[in-house]
Amino acid sequence: MIGFTLRRLVLLLPVFLVVSLVVFFIIHLVPGDPIDNLLRAGSTPEQRLQIAAKYGLDRSLIEQYVTWMGRLLTGDLGTSIIQGRPVSALIARNLPYSLELGVAALLFSTLTGIAAGVIAASYQGTRVDDTITGFILLGSTVPSFWLGLMLILVFAVWLGWVPVSGARGWSSLILPVIAAGLGGIALVARVTRIAMIETSRQDFVMLLHAKGLPPFIIQLRHVLRHAMVPVVTILSLRIGWVLGGAVTIEYVFARPGLGSLLIRALNQRDYPLVQGCLLMLAMAVIIGALIGDIVQAAMDPRQREARA
């Protein structure tokens, strides 16, 4: 198991290099120039060149990338061009809000999705299964930003039960969690249902029925445990979504967080800040996949041997 984990960690190095290249060059392909947001009316071309030299924007992209990578390896994400503050400080200030929303939405979607999948698989072919499957289909097709707007209109504007926007207390977290977690519920429930149905057809389950064990014991104690391997795969991929998947939700609900910070930085063409935010989101996805591989290998030794 230790060797498997070390091999996975080594494989992260080329992945990190490719991600850093994509993150750096993709923002420089976006039309616009951050210097335009710093210049005042009537500024001279000499002042523009001075600002470009100050932030290293007068160098070639290769030189800029090498400089950025050198600082990145020392833990320095650079300084925001527009705000004039360290990128790491801006991310650290907004990261807790994104983690709060992402973790709450992940727990909500995981617990609700697994429960819905177990119920649907236990009542396969009945109206209960059809109803849950219908909700799964609905949840996987409704855009999260549209759902967020509808939730604001009904529960915040019409009924006044919760705040419209912001991050003031736990009540302001209810609607964003529902909007962000609905798609996850549909995905987890669908995977859980299919995995449990396939597992319930295996020989050992028939043997358990023949021994006279109660069906709910078989479903919860045996079938669900074996069906969790594909569910863990989905959940590991959604760990990265904890930070990155709620970008639109933060914007719709006007919540502070990495999503709102990234959108503002994109609008201002703040290269260092955009690069820092995108790198954080990308690394969250990579680390989530790594955790998923390790957990899968721990749960099923066959997975470890197949990927050795």
Automatic annotation (TrEMBL):
An MF annotation (GO) of this entry: dipeptide transmembrane transporter activity
Main location: membrane
Family matches, as InterPro entries: BPD_transp_1_N, MetI-like, MetI-like_sf
Domain ABC transmembrane type-1: 95-292
Keyword Ligase part of the UniProt annotation: no
A GO cellular-component term linked to this record: plasma membrane
Membrane topology: Multi-pass membrane protein
Membrane spanning stretches: 9-30, 103-123, 135-161, 173-192, 227-253, 273-295
Pfam families: BPD_transp_1, BPD_transp_1_N
Metal-binding as UniProt keyword: no
Keyword line: Cell membrane, Membrane, Transmembrane, Transmembrane helix, Transport
Annotated localization: Cell membrane
Family note: Belongs to the binding-protein-dependent transport system permease family.
Matching PANTHER family: DIPEPTIDE TRANSPORT SYSTEM PERMEASE PROTEIN DPPB-RELATED (PTHR43163)
Protein name as it appears in the record: ABC transporter permease
Source organism per UniProt: Aminobacter anthyllidis
Organism phylogeny: Bacteria, Pseudomonadati, Pseudomonadota, Alphaproteobacteria, Hyphomicrobiales
